[in-house]
Design goal:
By secondary structure, the chain is of the alpha/beta class. The protein has nine helices and eight strands. It has an eight-stranded parallel beta sheet, with helices on both faces.
Length: 235
Amino acid sequence: MKKVYVFIGNYGSGKTELALNFAVKAAEHRRTELLDIDMVNTYFRLAEHGRMTRMKEIRLVSPNYACTGIETLSLPAEVASAFAMDWDTVIFDAGGDAVGSTALGRYHQDFMELEPGGLEVLNVINIRRPLAGTVERIIKLQQEMELHARLKITGMINNTNLAQMTGPAELRDGYEMIKEVSKITGVPVKYTSGRKKLLDQFLAEGHDPAYIGTPVAIETYMHRDWDSWIHGLSD
């Protein structure tokens, strides 16, 4: 059965990083397509990793004009291949917030025709970002994204981080807040993600596994420009 993952969430939550990590893992054993349909953020683009995805045998579909310096993007016809072709795993990286989720609504009927159990719509949450800094904000944004995407969110991912400044408190604080969101909304926590060392430390603290889901250790592929600049200063 084809498995389709849709990553949505607040701007800066780490959706693109997670989408790429999920695709790399899936491609180890399954035919995988990765679709960037983020029409809002032109900074982090999966198209920048075209060579890597080809090496991993991942088919990458990006918006027209991505990484060309042209700010007006449009969805390519190749998005239809996610539904028409016989992929094992399909991963959508959607834009942040409600506006970014709107692009998904165009494919509502295609999503509805997937086999039962074949679709996961995952809200990637980073409580260190302003739009997801409180339980009320997370729930409000989640409701808005569902409305614009015309899709029901099936699970949440605790991906709380501060990039290179991430410490043990990030996943722990994210766990506590997202647990409250889950209790109020009934939306389960499907995954908790982070760099392996910090993830292992968090898991060793003995939190309720019902609000952790499946732990996912991630690699960092999406580097900010200033990371490279800082690294150059130390050389």
